[in-house]
Design brief:
Elements: E1 9-13, H1 20-29, E2 34-37, H2 54-63, E3 67-70, H3 78-91, H4 103-114, H5 119-125, E4 132-136, H6 146-158, E5 161-165
Helix pairs in contact: 3-4, 4-6
Length: 168
């Protein structure tokens, strides 16, 4: 297999702040061909984000010719999400307004999920036709979401280019 670092580009995207139209336009504009859902539960509260609920999301991605993959093993479990939720409460912020992950969450995520993470095996699991892979969760700011930790690890380990897609 050729060097993955020259073949694949990584983008990250959240749901918050996007409309269905702008979300899918961002994926098309960046030529995403593989969509990696990093959520534990694949739903989003609020009718404005119904497009990001699993069934609708998978259907629309299929219509666009974008392959959908779910990586629950990279999704923070309920206990880890509670750790971040407690930090959000202490900071008097909401998940939708959060701009950064708490240090205890980052430390725990790195230890539990990325300590044994094999970046090369992850990229290979996307398949040989992947050129642009999107890492997805719901938070608007990549720094407020575990997807940025996965992206950073792929960038550090493999030298992959990473672009964070943000709502306008």
């Amino acid at each position: 297999m050729s060097d993955v670092s020259t073949n694949i580009r990584i983008v990250t995207i959240g749901a918050y702040g996007f409309t269905a139209e702008t979300f899918f336009a961002a994926l098309r504009r960046t030529q995403v061909d593989t969509f990696c859902d990093l959520r534990y539960r694949r739903g989003v509260r609020g009718s404005e984000y119904a497009f990001a609920n699993r069934q609708r999301l998978e259907q629309r991605l299929a219509e666009l010719g974008i392959r959908y993959l779910h990586f629950r093993e990279l999704a923070p479990d309920p206990a880890l999400r509670r750790l971040q939720s407690d930090a959000d409460k202490a900071e008097r912020t909401t998940k939708r307004q959060r701009n950064v992950l708490s240090p205890p969450f980052v430390e725990a995520y790195l230890a539990r999920y990325l300590a044994g993470f094999d970046s090369r095996a992850f990229i290979q699991s996307l398949g040989p036709t992947t050129r642009v892979a999107a890492l997805f969760c719901v938070e608007r700011a990549p720094e407020a979401c575990h997807r940025s930790l996965v992206a950073q690890r792929l960038q550090e380990d493999l030298g992959l280019a990473v672009e964070h897609l943000l709502p306008e």
